[in-house]
Amino acid sequence: MPPLIAHIVFSFRVGGLENGMVNLINRLPANQFRHAIVSLTDVDPAFVARIARPDLQIIELHKKPGPGAALFPQMFRTLRVLRPAIVHTRNLAALEMAVPAWAAGVPVRIHGEHGRDVDDPHGDRAKPRWVRRAYSPFVTQYIALSRELENYLTARVGIANRRVSLFCNGVDAMRFHPAERGRNALAGSPFNDPALCVVGTVGRLQAVKDQLGLVKAFSLIAGQLPNLRLVIVGEGGMRGAIESAVRDAGLVSKVWLAGERADVPDVMRSFDIFTLPSIAEGISNTVLEAMASGLPVVATAVGGTLELVCEGETGTLVPASDPQRLAAALAGLARDPARIAAFGHAARQRIEAEFSLDAMVARYGNLYSRALEGSTRRA
Length: 379
Fold this sequence. Notes:
The chain has 379 residues and is α/β, with parallel strands linked by helices. It contains 15 helices and 13 strands.
């Protein structure tokens, strides 16, 4: 049977990291690798259904609050039953599971860094660096999804350069493609009038994504641009605060909180401009999806976004946590349909040239194969 990869994550629900896993598992050849997803907490069955692999194994460990080390015995037993050839942990919340993987005799233990920790958006805290350094002997290979994260691992955590591979995300440019003419109508949207200019964002409603700052920025320009509308797609703990901010600003008729949507390609084609106001980011799947959809991007100049958006060519970058600068960038673009079209066209070309999903899958497949070959030689 093909070797088994056990993908260990904190949870498996709608998100950029998880969407990348769906694409990877669906596209790696079935005769090359088998897959299991081990969630430290739980999974969303509807999201799991996006994986078209009948041999996929799903395991939920229902972790309770507290140190992850309490889960070591259960993880050890789980891996002894699964007997994977590779364990692939993702982000700090799952990193410590490299220890029971090592104890269970898993020969290849890969760890991926996909983005900043919510409580350490700039990588300045010492404790997360110490934790990463402490667990590094149990990891055989690292994957960083942006050059900024690669530099963090090598220069600040102290991981040897040879142990870190830089992989950029890829996007399915067949599913995410530009609307044929103008923007498309979206089921349930109150803003389908073609005379409107729709600014949209997609992401979890979390403080690090700073949708509150986006609402503030929109409030500064909504009165100047009567045809401007804002759509916020996603769910999360900040929803109540965002709804309150919209009400307090008197923007209920101009801002739509669309909730979680399963039709994100259609959502993208219903926007004129995509914006991502995050305080911290890795390589954002939603920015890639927006660019593939032929949208100009107005985003904060943080993390991997700097590696995706070409200033003045595919979009505009502004400082994080600066609603005034974000508002000015959105207003300037909204007033210039020709620039919207030019940026969107250049964004699509950039995706086709540099961020192919097939290339991303091939990189992962090659890394997994090389790591297995190396473990066999060492044995």
